[in-house]
Amino acid sequence: MSEEFLEYDVAVVGAGPAGSNAAYECAKSGYKVIILEEDPVVGVPVQCGEGLSCFALQHLDLKPEDEFVSANISRLRVIFTNGNWMSVHDGGYELDRDKFDQFLVKRATDAGSDLYTSARVIEFNSEEKILKLTYKKKIIFVKAKIIIGADGPKSNIAAWSGLLQKEEWREKLIRAYELKMEGVDVNGFDMYFDVDIAPGGYLWVFQKGDNIANVGIATTAKDSANRLDRFIQQKKIDGKVIGKTAGAIPYKGPLEKTYADGVLIAGDAAGSTNPVFLGGISTAMQTGSLAGKTAVESLEADDYSAGFLSRYQKKWMKLPLADKSLLETAKVMHQFTPEMWEKMGELVGKSDVTNITTLGKLRVVLKAFYPKYWSLIPVVPYMPTVMKAFSITRKWGW
Asked: Alpha-carbon Rg of the chain, whole angstroms?
């Protein structure tokens, strides 16, 4: 293989929402940026439920475009094992995730970034900040002042930078499996919490378009495909499978440290997902944008030290989706028994919690002391935390 050596101000590994937003921020400030994407086509294969709240786009001043919005969503329901549910009427979108990723990366290239697809990074010299990659039957070395790792939940950049140990990190990933089905009638996003079928996670039926839905499962169990089939039979979902996808989602919180000398880690690579509903698009865009802005500050100051770049972590820790209540609530939910989920469904009833008042929240807590809900008594001390987490999640977490 022939070899080539390139130099950039910033090298971004991964062209998902985190990487593309990071690259955009750097390129629009006039810096020389390269995006390295392992897959031949950005956004393909799709490994996502594809749901996104309207607030996620508004936060970054992005407008929903017909080219990447598959369906406008006005309702999200959390459905319990006994059929009761609670709903949230906040706006959102079901994306065509491949087209959305392509939209974001085009924004970055239009700003001046170079994009290399089918570019597989195989080594990283963290001292010299040199990436070694294979590209079009060539070996290319890319040297940059700052490396931004946005290379997904099994991030090599984070591992090579000493920010994660892969064996330990695997325990913080949950398996996801999804079918795209035709002939399924669903209105909005439906999430099912059934610990018997999906321990550690949940199941979903997301409206994808007219009579098309994404039907999926995230679970700590190893036989996710069989469990999803069981759910489909149980709910009598009669549709034709027209696509399949699988992947892993970080669900136990972010990396302890998301920066090193000349390195920033963003998106799934940093473990930046909402542990309650496992949403990761919004967090990827937000952390990617902050990583890019921090890289610009670093370039302007000509300081690429870990000490300087630590400001990135301070920034993302102020985001709503970094609130500790989310991880605490996820831990509480993972300890629920089937009976507790059933009683929670009865307690909430078929209710809309979009505009629930403080008094309404207090009534829910007090109802937990009724004899029929005594199995939920251990949860009562955590209810303010849970309510805070759901308040954040309804806006930012899907």
From this structure: 22
Contacts of 371 (CB under 8 A, 6+ apart): none
Strand partners, 182: 212, 240
Cβ contact 152:158 at 8 Å? no
- For the record, the structure tokens of 354 come out as 């979009």
Tell me whether the omega of the peptide bond preceding residue 338 falls within 30 degrees of 0, making it cis. Answer: no
Enter the pTM of the model: 0.94
Q: DSSP assignment of 213-252, as one string? A: EEEEEEESSS-HHHHHHHHHHHTT---EEEEEEEEEEE-S
What angle separates helix 383-396 from helix 324-334, to the nearest 10 degrees? 110
Under 8 Å between Cβ of 344 and 83: no
DSSP line for 28-70: TTT--EEEE-SSSSTT-S--S--EEEHHHHHHTT----TTTEE
Domains along the chain with CATH numbers: 2-45+96-170+255-322 (3.50.50.60), 173-250 (3.30.9.10), 325-396 (no CATH)
Tens-place pLDDT, residues 147-169? 999 999 999 999 999 999 988 89
User: Do the bridges between strand 130-135 and strand 202-209 make them parallel or antiparallel, or are there none, so unpaired?
Assistant: unpaired
- Write phi, then psi, for 61 (nearest 5 degrees): 60, 45
Tokens of 58: 């508004």
- Which residues, other chains included, contact 187 with Cβ-Cβ below 8 Å and sequence gap of 6+? 75, 207
Residue 220 pLDDT level (bands cut at 50, 70, 90):
very high
Dihedral pair phi/psi, residue 96, rounded to 5°? -95, 95
Strand 259-260 versus strand 85-88 pairing type:
unpaired
Q: Within 13 Å of residue 212, how many CA atoms lie on the same side as its CB?
A: 13
Contact 289, 22 (CB under 8 A): yes
